[in-house]
C-alpha cells in the first residue's frame, strides 16, 4: 500500500470527522460524538501517519515504520472501543491490567513520534517529566511526593483528562485544526504572492524599500500561517535576494527576514498554535487573546521598521527599481478574494462565532472564490496535494501535542503544582520582578530544546499561577511566557529561524543570529512592558491605554535609534566612546519612557516618562552639537 494513498484517505477521514464535530452535521441522524471520544478517534486517525511521513531512514517508509503505524493505530483504536468505560468508570484511577499495558505501549509510540518530529531535546524532556511520578518520593523539597506505581502511571497518562488528552489536545481538537487547514489552503492558493505584491506596492518606493517589504510581507504571511520556518523559506526566497541587490548586507537581510517571520506568529488574526492553547488555559474566547496581542505586535513591527529605515538612511540605500514594483491596484485586482476571506474570518471572530467554525467557513469561501481565478485554480491533483499536505501537517502537530500533554500529566499525577507555586512566591518575596526575570530566563532556556507550545504549557502550569498570585494580570503573564518562549527562534545558539534564512542568504547562521538579536531586541523588552502595564494589552480604561501606547511607541523609537546608531533629522552617532554614550542614552531613555514606573522609588508612569524624555533629549543634543564626529547625515529622513 502506498503512503500517498494512506495519507489521502486519512486526511479525508480526519477532516470529515473534524468538520462534523465542529458543525454537528450528524445531529440530523441523532448521532453526536462526545468530546473525549472525539479526541480518541482523532488521535487514532491522525497520529499513526507520523511514522509514514517521518520514516526511520530516507524518504520511504520501511517495515519498521509500517509496524509502528499499525501498533499506534491499535493503541488508539483500543481507547475508542473502550471510551465509555474510560470516561464513566474512572479508568484514570482503576483500570484493567490489559488497559494499562496498552497505555504503556502507547507511551512508547508517543515518545518515538515526538523524537521523529522534534528531535531529542523535546523527547528527553517529555520522558523525564512523564516518568517523574515514579521517583517523586526520592526527590527533595517541594518536588517530593508519593511515588506512583509503574502501571498506574501509564493508566493516568492515557485515561485521565490531565495528560495525553488534557488541555493541549483539547485546544488542538477544538480550535487549532481549523486554522491549520486555513493556513495551508492559503499557501496552496497562492496567498504568499499576494502578500509580497501588496508589500512591494506599499514599501517598494521608500529608501531601502526591499527591507521594508520583507518586514511587511513576512509579518502578514506569518500571522496567517502561524509557522516561522515555512514563512522564512517562502517569503525569504523573494525578499532576501531583493535586499542584497539593493545594498543590504547578507547577514542584515537574513536577520530582518528571520525576525519579521518570528514576530508574525505573535500577530493577530491567527497567530500560532500556542495562542489557542492559551485561550483554553484561560477559558476565554480566542478573540480576546488576539485583541490583547494586537498592540504589542504593532509596537514590535514599528520598532523593526524604524531600524530598517535607520539602516537604509545611514547607508543612503535606494528604493527598489520602478520596474520591480507592482501597483497597489494591480495587487488587489489579482488578490481581492484573499481580502474577502480575511475580512470574513475577522468579522466572524469579532461576532463571537466559534473559532473553528469561523476558520472552516473562511476556508470554504476561499476554495470557492479561488476557482474563479485561473492563475491559482486547483484541479483534482491540486486538491489531492492540498489534502495530503493537511494530513501531513496535522499528523506532525498532533504527535507533539499528545507528547507534551504528558509534561503536564507528570506534574498533575504528583499533586506538587500548588506547592511549587507557593515556593516560587516565597522566593520572590518583596521583589516580584525577580520572579518575572526568572520566568523569562526559564522560558528562553526551555524554548531552546522544546517547542514553543511545550515550553508555554510547562510554565503555564508551574510558573504562571505564582505570577498571577503575586498580582500580575493573567493574560499579560500568559502572553509574557509565550513571547519569551518564541525568542529562541532568533537567539543563538539555537536560532532555527536564522538557520533557515542562512540557507537562502548563504551567510553564517551565527552572524545572522546576533544580527537578529539586535533587530528583534524590542521582543526582549515588550513582554516586561505589558506585564507591568497591562494597558498595552488593552486591559484598562481608554485613557490608560492611550497613555501607555503613546509613551511605549516613543520609547521603542528611541531604542531603535540607539540600536542602529542613527536618529532621523540628526544623523549617525559618533565613533568611539562618545558614540556608545549617545547610543546608551537613547536606549536607556527609551526603556525609561516605555516602562510603567518604579513604585519602590515613588516614581509613577508620568515621572519616569519625563526622566526618559530628558535622557533621550540629552543624547540627541549631544549628537547635534558634535557634527564633526558624525560619520554621515542622510539628506532625506522621512519614511516615504
From TrEMBL:
Provide the GO MF annotations for this entry: transmembrane transporter activity
Q: How does it sit in the membrane?
A: Multi-pass membrane protein
Q: Which residues cross the membrane?
A: 37-54, 66-84, 90-110, 122-143, 163-186, 252-277, 289-314, 393-418, 424-447, 454-475, 481-502, 522-542, 548-568, 580-598, 604-626
Q: Which residues form the TRAP C4-dicarboxylate transport system permease DctM subunit domain?
A: 105-544
Q: Which UniProt keywords apply?
A: Cell inner membrane, Cell membrane, Membrane, Transmembrane, Transmembrane helix, Transport
| Protein's name according to its UniProt entry | TRAP transporter fused permease subunit
Q: Which InterPro entries match?
A: DctM, TRAP_DctM-Dct_fused
- Pfam families referenced in this protein's UniProt entry, alphabetically: DctM (PF06808)
Its biological purpose: Part of the tripartite ATP-independent periplasmic (TRAP) transport system.
Subcellular location, record wording: Cell inner membrane
Q: What's a single GO CC term here? A: plasma membrane
Q: What is its main location?
A: membrane
Amino acid at each position: 500500500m502506498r503512503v500517498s494513498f494512506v495519507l489521502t484517505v486519512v486526511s479525508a477521514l480526519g477532516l470529515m470527522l473534524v468538520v462534523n464535530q465542529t458543525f454537528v452535521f450528524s445531529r440530523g441522524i441523532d448521532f453526536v460524538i462526545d468530546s473525549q471520544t472525539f479526541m480518541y478517534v482523532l488521535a487514532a486517525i491522525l497520529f499513526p501517519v507520523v511514522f509514514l511521513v517521518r520514516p526511520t531512514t530516507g524518504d520511504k517508509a520501511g517495515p519498521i515504520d509500517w509496524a509502528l503505524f499499525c501498533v499506534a493505530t491499535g493503541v488508539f483504536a483500543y481507547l475508542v472501543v473502550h471510551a465509555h468505560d474510560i470516561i464513566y468508570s474512572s479508568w484514570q484511577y482503576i483500570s484493567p491490567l490489559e488497559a494499562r499495558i496498552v497505555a504503556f505501549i502507547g507511551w512508547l509510540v508517543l515518545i518515538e513520534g515526538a523524537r521523529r518530529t522534534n528531535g531529542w531535546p523535546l523527547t528527553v524532556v517529555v520522558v523525564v517529566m512523564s516518568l517523574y511520578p515514579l521517583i517523586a518520593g526520592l526527590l527533595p523539597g517541594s518536588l517530593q511526593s508519593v511515588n506512583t506505581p509503574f502501571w498506574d502511571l501509564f493508566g493516568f497518562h492515557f485515561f485521565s483528562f490531565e495528560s495525553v488528552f488534557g488541555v493541549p489536545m483539547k485546544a488542538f481538537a477544538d480550535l487549532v485544526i481549523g486554522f491549520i487547514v486555513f493556513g495551508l489552503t492559503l499557501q496552496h492558493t497562492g496567498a504568499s504572492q499576494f502578500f509580497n505584491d501588496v508589500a512591494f506596492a506599499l514599501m517598494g518606493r521608500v529608501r531601502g524599500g526591499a527591507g521594508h517589504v520583507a518586514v511587511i510581507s513576512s509579518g502578514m504571511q506569518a500571522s496567517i500561517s502561524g509557522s516561522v520556518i515555512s514563512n522564512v523559506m517562502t517569503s525569504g526566497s523573494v525578499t532576501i535576494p531583493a535586499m542584497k541587490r539593493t545594498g543590504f548586507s547578507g547577514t542584515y537581510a537574513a536577520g530582518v527576514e528571520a525576525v519579521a517571520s518570528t514576530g508574525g506568529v505573535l500577530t493577530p488574526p491567527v497567530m500560532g498554535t500556542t495562542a489557542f492553547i492559551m485561550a483554553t488555559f484561560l477559558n476565554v474566547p480566542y478573540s480576546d487573546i488576539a485583541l490583547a496581542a494586537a498592540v504589542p505586535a504593532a509596537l514590535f513591527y514599528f520598532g523593526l521598521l524604524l531600524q530598517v529605515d535607520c539602516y537604509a538612511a545611514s547607508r543612503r540605500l535606494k528604493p527598489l527599481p520602478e520596474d520591480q514594483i507592482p501597483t497597489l491596484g494591480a495587487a488587489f485586482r489579482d488578490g481581492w478574494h484573499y481580502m474577502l476571506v480575511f475580512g470574513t474570518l475577522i468579522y466572524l471572530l469579532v461576532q463571537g462565532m466559534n473559532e473553528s467554525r469561523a476558520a472552516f467557513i473562511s476556508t470554504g469561501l476561499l476554495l470557492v472564490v479561488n476557482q474563479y481565478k485561473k492563475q491559482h485554480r486547483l484541479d483534482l491533483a491540486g486538491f489531492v496535494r492540498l489534502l495530503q499536505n493537511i494530513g501531513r501537517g496535522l499528523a506532525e502537530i498532533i504527535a507533539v501535542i499528545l507528547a507534551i500533554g504528558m509534561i503536564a500529566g507528570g506534574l498533575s499525577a504528583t499533586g506538587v503544582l500548588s506547592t511549587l507555586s507557593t515556593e516560587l512566591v516565597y522566593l520572590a518575596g518583596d521583589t516580584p520582578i525577580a520572579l518575572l526575570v526568572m520566568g523569562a530566563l526559564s522560558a528562553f532556556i526551555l524554548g531552546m530544546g522544546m517547542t514553543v507550545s511545550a515550553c508555554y504549557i510547562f510554565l503555564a502550569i508551574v510558573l504562571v499561577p505564582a505570577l498571577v498570585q503575586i498580582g500580575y494580570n493573567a493574560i499579560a503573564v500568559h502572553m509574557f511566557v509565550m513571547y519569551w518562549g518564541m525568542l529562541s527562534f532568533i537567539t543563538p545558539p539555537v536560532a532555527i529561524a536564522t538557520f533557515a534564512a542562512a540557507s537562502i542568504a548563504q551567510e553564517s547562521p551565527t552572524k545572522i543570529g546576533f544580527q537578529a538579536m539586535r533587530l528583534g531586541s524590542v521582543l526582549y523588552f515588550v513582554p516586561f512592558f505589558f506585564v507591568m502595564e497591562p494597558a498595552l494589552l488593552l486591559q484598562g480604561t481608554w485613557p490608560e491605554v492611550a497613555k501607555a501606547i503613546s509613551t511605549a511607541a516613543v520609547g521603542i523609537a528611541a531604542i531603535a535609534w540607539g540600536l542602529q546608531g542613527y536618529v532621523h533629522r540628526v544623523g549617525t552617532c559618533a565613533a568611539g566612546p562618545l558614540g556608545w554614550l549617545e547610543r546608551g542614552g537613547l536606549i536607556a531613555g527609551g526603556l525609561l519612557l516605555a516602562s510603567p514606573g518604579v513604585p519602590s522609588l515613588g516614581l509613577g508612569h508620568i515621572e519616569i516618562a519625563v526622566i526618559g524624555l530628558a535622557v533621550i533629549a540629552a543624547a540627541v543634543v549631544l549628537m547635534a552639537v558634535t557634527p564633526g564626529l558624525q560619520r554621515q547625515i542622510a539628506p532625506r529622513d522621512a519614511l516615504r
